[in-house]
Specification:
The chain is an alpha+beta fold. The protein is built from 11 helices and 10 strands. Bound molecules: iron/sulfur cluster (SF4) (2 copies). The site of one iron/sulfur cluster (SF4) has 13 residues, from helix 10.
Length: 285
């Protein structure tokens, strides 16, 4: 919703007198409300905010959409088998970052406001104050949803991965991995992209587009005639070690919010928590 899969950044055009002109693509944001964002979505958005808004360069396209976004989040009451947001510290409840947060109770929804925009919206509704019983039910749901089948392994992943660059495990995971890039395309924190020139049929102008890319595509590491990550094992290692190790230096935390989408969408059943566990077991050996 915020980092578009494909968008034009600028275009060039040859004018009648033969001069080349460059024009920045204008952003035309619409006000958008997302209803039903989960804790992992909100946590991922905060990471993307860091990347697109809080670095030396503020991305105007992301900013325009972010400034016009209203979020009604829903706390998770039942985790899926692939969820591990509790162990990344990002869920299952939304602590901040949304405008309004709903929790489904037996008797209806408990509504919590997190921003002034959310407050304005609720002022127009005739809601009842919640009871102590409903608050207690809310806490019980939170405790139940925090019990998740999956979790990150309990070792210092950040520093361990730095010392495992030549571990055989990268090759055994890569033997299954199709390098399809599904995991990166569904990951809510990934932001890799490529930029491409698309000529128009008039022969006088071209558009410059930004499109989602993946560290699993071979061309993504092509520089000056060399594909740096030519092996699938190198690409998987790049993805995992960036998400769970070098991401800390860039953004002060890991790049995983425990949403489990990469697990759900991997066509060969590679599970990121199991991949990380390989390094724990091998070190113990
Ligand atoms: S989705 Fe699975 S098979 Fe595809 S690149 Fe990711 S880990 Fe490899
Ligand atoms: S790495 Fe997988 S589990 Fe973690 S945020 Fe990305 S898609 Fe979700």
């Amino acid at each position: 919703m915020l980092f578009a899969a494909r968008e034009k950044l600028w275009q060039s055009r040859r004018s009648a007198d033969g001069q080349l002109c460059f024009e920045t693509a204008q952003v035309e944001p619409e006000a958008v409300a997302i209803i039903g964002a989960r804790a992992c979505d909100v946590a991922a958005m905060k990471i993307q905010d860091q990347h697109f808004l809080q670095q030396s360069f503020v991305d105007p396209y992301y900013k325009a959409r972010r400034d016009n976004l209203f979020i009604i989040a829903v706390n998770c009451s039942r985790p899926a088998a692939t969820c591990f947001c509790y162990s990344t510290g990002d869920g299952p409840f939304v602590e901040d970052g949304a405008d309004i947060v709903l929790t489904e109770l037996d008797s209806g929804f408990l509504v919590k406001v997190q921003t002034s925009q959310g407050k304005v919206l609720l002022e127009d509704l005739s809601l009842q104050a919640c009871t102590e019983k409903q608050v207690a039910e809310h806490e019980q749901i939170k405790a139940a949803a925090s019990i998740q089948e999956k979790q990150l392994p309990q070792y210092d992943i950040r520093s361990r991965l730095r010392h495992e660059l030549n571990n055989e495990a990268w090759h055994s995971i890569a033997a299954k991995c199709l390098s399809c890039g599904n995991c990166t395309l569904v990951c809510p924190t990934c932001f890799c992209h490529s930029e491409n020139e698309v000529p128009e049929l008039d022969g006088k102008s071209s558009g410059h587009y930004r499109e989602w890319d993946s560290c699993f595509s071979q061309g993504h590491s092509y520089i000056h005639g060399i594909t740096i990550q030519s092996e699938v094992s190198q690409r998987y290692r790049q993805w995992l070690s960036h998400k769970f190790s070098s991401w800390y230096e860039q953004y002060g935390r890991s790049g995983c919010v425990g949403c489990g989408r990469c697990i759900s969408w991997c066509p060969v059943g590679i599970d990121v928590t199991e991949s990380l566990a390989c390094f724990e077991e091998r070190r113990r050996d």
